[in-house]
Amino acid sequence: EKGGFEHFMLKEIHEQPKALRDTMASRIAHDLSINLHDLDDIDIEKAGKLFIVACGTAYHAGVVGKYLIERMARLPVEVDIASEFRYRQPIISKGDLAIVISQSGETADTLAALRELKRQGATVIAIANVVGSTITREANKVLYTWAGPEIAVASTKAYTTQLLVITMIALYMAKRRGAMKQRNIDDIVSDIIKLPDKAQSILNGKEAVQHYAAQHFSAHSIFFIGRGLDYALAMEGSLKLKEISYIHSEAYAAGELKHGTIALIEPGTLVVALATQPELFDKMLSNIKEVKARGAVVMAVVQEGNTAIEDVADYVIYLPDTSSWLVPMLGVIPLQLFAYYTALYKGCDVDKPRNLAKSVTVE
Ligand code: F6R
């Protein structure tokens, strides 16, 4: 049942090329147009605000979604953790839009947020993986991630496919709102089509990541830093590591380090620096130099060709070149592998980490 893999998590990490392919299959036409016809009758042109609500890894996909929808479709987005959203008395107006994201479709906090959004007149789109789950039955619209069953507690292929669906929504909304030139949309869509092969090439090079994990599995604290989309990705890398390896880990917006967290950097502390966004690359280089000056060991993740990073980082993971908007779908793969191998070397129960359940149906 594990298809020759030692754990479900490793199997599911390797299923990402197929999961991405299946999730885009019926939604991208030969002429590169995005088919999300289920959303055609929603008044996206006039929407004033969009809420994104989810928990855990699905929330991290939502944070990426906020960047993409605001920047591509120029629609204001608020993104919340479901258990916080319900109690902050959010200001929702009739005609507002919402996206709830859930692999299982059964998470109690996300379901409660969905009900509150609907009660106050928002139109709710669910991004979910389990067909027929409660959230899919209660939402106004459903877009499935065709990731297939996810067994390991740590979410992997659900996250990448959630990112893919939300990217397609952002492009679809950008077109409906006239916020992007068709040529620019087409360029991104043609890069989307190439993602499964690029994901595969990262998996083919997994030994390098395994090697870094072998050197750091006894760390007591690891930091993930990034800016923009890389900050959103840092949150997911950090969660993956802590939940299965039990190593304390934090994600920080790189520019925020010097406002406090840099105090925790000691000689030998591992900092995973995500520097995949061209317009933020120079700023990231300065942040990396700041942590290096305090003795950190830096593992950097960058896009192919950015060799300038080798002057400052101790190890570099190169990602296949793609549109900077799409990078999180590739960049998460080395982070998942790093968490997996770290937990494996520590002897942890990778598929069933302590204290966690696959689906959280209590609030
Ligand atoms: C982390 C993880 C959890 C879930 C969260 C939401 O690897 O699996 O953080 O992402 O419990 O679950 P769903 O997506 O089923 O609502």
Automatic annotation (TrEMBL):
The keyword tRNA processing belongs to this UniProt entry's keyword annotation: no
Q: Which UniProt keywords apply?
A: Aminotransferase, Cytoplasm, Glutamine amidotransferase, Repeat, Transferase
- Establish whether keyword Transferase is in the entry: yes
Which parts of the sequence belong to the SIS domain?
40-179, 208-353
From what superkingdom does this record's organism come?
Bacteria
Q: What is its EC number?
A: 2.6.1.16
GO term, biological process aspect, one: fructose 6-phosphate metabolic process
Q: Which GO terms describe its molecular function?
A: carbohydrate derivative binding; glutamine-fructose-6-phosphate transaminase (isomerizing) activity
What reactions does this protein catalyze? D-fructose 6-phosphate + L-glutamine = D-glucosamine 6-phosphate + L-glutamate
**Active site as annotated:** K358
Q: Which EC class does it fall in?
A: transferase
Record GO cellular component, one term: cytosol
Where is the protein found, in the record's own terms?
A: Cytoplasm
Q: What does this protein do?
A: Catalyzes the first step in hexosamine metabolism, converting fructose-6P into glucosamine-6P using glutamine as a nitrogen source.
Self-association state and partner proteins as the record states: Homodimer.
Q: What is this protein called?
A: Glutamine--fructose-6-phosphate aminotransferase [isomerizing]
Q: Which organism is it from?
A: Mahella australiensis (strain DSM 15567 / CIP 107919 / 50-1 BON)
